[in-house]
Design a protein that fits this description.
The protein contains 15 helices and five strands. By secondary structure, it is mainly alpha-helical. The protein folds into two domains: about 5-195 and about 305-345, 3-Layer(aba) Sandwich (Rossmann fold), CATH 3.40.50.620; about 215-300, Orthogonal Bundle (Tyrosyl-Transfer RNA Synthetase). Bound molecules: iron/sulfur cluster (SF4). Iron/sulfur cluster binds next to helix 11, helix 12 and helix 13.
């Protein structure tokens, strides 16, 4: 089977945008690929280094949401980045060969500095070595497992392209012995179909906008959040016809509702035959039905915190074994001194 790798920062409890944009796709990949999924806690430090008090808790929350969503530790290697120190070792070695300009021109570098890096406006100081280097840490994450594919959304394609460039450069400097395969194969992008998923204020669903519906939100909370969600701005009065294609609620219906419900939404909205409250109620029914089985599974894992830790520990152990194989080839390729294992671990 071809190998797939992807990760997520531990930002705390996940929301529907995380689920529909990545997690659900990962669950589906499990049967067809050898899957490695990791919680990128070192990546969280690149922006949140000043307050690390929530990282451990958030890591476990993300693990719970992954397991609840159907990631199966029997079929996938589910692990924590910081438990596999080889990520840091490869990152360091790759940093030796990566020109600064490659990192400075990564689109998210400037974007994020503008969005959250304005210290005068209460933002975070992102003028750090670690923040500049985070796309290279991502490259190390991928190349460490000699992954064939990286499932990403369109906005992450540039990062995989950087990884390919870095791998090419590594393989040029340190070619394999005649006839051998390159040590760091260039990964391919596996584009994740990501439906438009607005949050309750109509902008993209995102934790930083405070407009999310969490996978853990109980039914009354889901209903209340959807009840106050923004709608087609042209539909001011109940008697005004609306247009679901211009309404964030309509966008969510397209993701969660059946074709039959969709037909009722189009007909009822365009003729002003239904009110927005009724329409949002149908959406809430669909969302709650989607979340129920996840929440049930989550409760089982919540009742066994030791089991969750054990799953992460075992996954990290398997990941480390695989990462170790790559690092042996990498050290060989760089002609670093080889010592007996006991010597190295002293
Ligand atoms: S009826 Fe539904 S789709 Fe139409 S404007 Fe209201 S919430 Fe949006």
């Amino acid at each position: 089977m071809k190998r797939v790798l992807s990760g997520m920062r531990p930002t705390g409890k996940l929301h529907l945008g995380n689920y529909m944009g990545a997690l659900l796709n990962w669950v589906r990949l499990q049967g067809d690929y050898e899957c490695y999924f990791f919680i990128a806690d070192w990546h969280a430090l690149t922006t949140d280094y000043a307050d690390t008090s929530k990282i451990a808790e958030n890591t476990l929350e993300v693990a719970l949401d992954w397991l609840a969503a159907g990631l199966d530790p029997e079929r996938s290697v589910v692990f924590v980045q910081s438990s596999v120190p080889e990520h840091a070792e490869l990152h360091l070695l790759l940093s030796m060969i990566t020109p600064l300009g490659w990192l400075e021109r990564v689109p998210t570098y400037k974007e994020q500095q503008q969005q959250i890096g304005d210290v005068a406006a209460g933002g975070k100081d992102l003028s750090t070595y670690g923040f500049l280097g985070y796309p290279l840490l991502q490259s190390a994450d991928i190349l460490l497992y000699q992954a064939d594919f990286v499932p990403v959304g369109q906005d992450q394609v540039a990062h995989v392209e950087l990884t390919r460039e870095v791998a090419r450069r590594f393989n040029q400097f340190y070619p394999p012995p005649a006839g051998g395969a390159p040590v760091l194969p260039e990964p391919q992008v596996l584009l994740t179909p990501s439906p438009k998923l607005p949050g309750t204020d109509g902008r993209k669903m995102s934790k930083s906008y405070g407009n999310t519906i969490l996978l853990t939100d109980p039914e009354p909370v889901v209903r209340q959040k959807l009840k106050t969600m923004v709608t087609d701005p042209a539909r001011v009065r109940r008697s005004d016809p609306g247009e679901p294609d211009l309404c964030p609620v309509g966008d969510l219906h397209k993701v969660f509702s059946t074709p039959e419900t969709m037909e009722r939404v189009y007909a009822g909205c365009r003729s002003a035959g239904i009110g927005c409250i009724e329409c949002k109620g149908w959406l809430a029914d669909a969302v709650v039905a989607q979340l129920n089985p996840l929440q049930e599974r989550r409760r089982e894992y919540e009742n066994s915190p030791a089991l969750v830790r054990e799953i992460l520990a075992q996954g990290s152990c398997r990941a480390r074994a695989r990462a170790g194989e790559t690092m042996e080839q990498v050290r060989d390729a760089l002609h670093l001194v080889e010592l007996p294992t006991e010597e190295r671990s002293r």
